[in-house]
Amino acid sequence: MVRVMVVDDHPMWRDGVARDLAEAGYDVVAAVGEGRQAVRAAAAVRPDVVVLDLRLPDMPGAEVAARLAEVEPPPRVLVLSASAEQDDVLEAVKAGASGYLVKSASREEFLDAVRRTAAGDAVFTPGLAGLVLGEYRRLAAQDAPGDGQGDGPRLTDRETEVLRLVAKGLSYKQIADRLVLSHRTVQNHVQNTLRKLQLHNRVELVRYAIEQGLDAD
């Protein structure tokens, strides 16, 4: 059972999200209203996914996401925010959030986003994924990357093929369907690639792929 923690300073919203998750079969291990409390709770209850609001009374949500990345083992963070502002989205992702969903999403969209986040997908409200990829392309151009993998870690042809599709924004299920593989096999390829490249999450993996030009057709 996927363990989920909810972080939101509005009690009615927090309780409603926790109830929806519990009814959908998730194990809601904590529901808290402050950032520092969330970091302490995550270290104690070890959630797989943290559903995080950005507007918290004691610290910015992006800072909470960054601190959660230091928890062992680090949970995947799905931001659930009323804001769809570019700066908020990019700040959250750079802090380590795996995905970003606006609060206008339906219950079904939210539950699907939690499921996909737990499975390792990067999940974004439609339109926001392109924003994040565009920012990483801009940063990659500024960094003036070298050509190909050079003397870095060597990936297998299949790992490179999966990485190319990750860079294009495909979910693990879409990649599995495209390559006629199982979902678990795709996850294993991604985990092996993360280990070889010494990266921590799918967001960092996407940036690496873009720097290598793997998102090009």
From TrEMBL:
Residues 3-118 form the Response regulatory domain. One of its GO terms (molecular function) is DNA binding. It comes from the Bacteria. Gene3D superfamilies: 3.40.50.2300. CDD domains: LuxR_C_like, REC_NarL-like. The modification 4-aspartylphosphate is found at residue 53. Keywords: DNA-binding, Phosphoprotein. Pfam families: GerE, Response_reg. GO terms for biological process: phosphorelay signal transduction system; regulation of DNA-templated transcription. Residues 148-213 form the HTH luxR-type domain. This is Response regulator transcription factor. The lineage of its organism: Bacteria, Bacillati, Actinomycetota, Actinomycetes, Streptosporangiales.
